[in-house]
Amino acid sequence: MNQLSFFSAESLPPSVTDLSGLLASVGQVVLSAAGARISAVVDDEWRAEAISDLMAECGLVAEIGRSEEDRPLVRTAAVAELSALASQWTKGAVKSMPPGWVPGPRELRAWVLVGGRPEAGGERYVLGLDPHAPESHAPLAQALMRAGIAPTLIGTRGASPGLRITGRRRLSRLVENVGMPPGNGDARTSWPQAR
């Protein structure tokens, strides 16, 4: 029987700051006169649908389309409600983690949705990082440590950098925070699991 953790993403009210978990990974933000737009190109349709649901829970309208590479793309409209978040996560035109940021359960859930992947039969789990924002990798590893999950930075010179989480206690902490996977069978095979 699965029990809802006091610390899990399902126990907290939604907020637009939840979307910072997308920005910790491959999510992008663009500021305009109308406000800010957050978008993410993902590998799977279930991810786009779950992120769209997350955006809707935060009170935002989301749309799912296709990227230039014909991959699922999910994005918000440009709205004023996202301007503060966009300002925190950018320096000039470059995406940058805000100083002192610590991902909470809902931010971790968004991070898993946009770029989480199991490794080695579920004994290790990787939270994907943005290969176009390498200066954010070490600060994001520190942010995850401040959240109580010590990762190992991997693939910094490749196309798939990430933060690898290894060990029963660390994986259990991640699972406790992100809650249950979306109801899609594909999501369950990509979701972190504590053994």
Series of H and E elements:
HEEHEEHEEHEEHEEHH
Strand percent estimate: 15-25%
Helix content: 25-40%
The CATH topology name reads Endonuclease I-creI
**What is the architecture at the second tier of CATH?**
Roll
Q: Gap between N and C termini, in Å?
A: 15 Å
- Main β-sheet description: 4 strands, antiparallel
Radius of gyration: 15 Å
Q: CATH top level?
A: Alpha Beta
Helices, by number, come to 7
Please provide a written account of the structure:
Helix content is 32%, strand content 22%. By secondary structure, the protein is of the alpha+beta class. It has a single domain (9-190), classed as Endonuclease I-creI. The strands form three sheets. The protein has a four-stranded antiparallel sheet. Strands 7-8-10-9 form a four-stranded antiparallel sheet. A two-stranded antiparallel sheet has the order 5-6. A hairpin with a 4-residue loop joins strand 7 (116-119) and strand 8. Helix 4 packs across helix 6 (168-178).
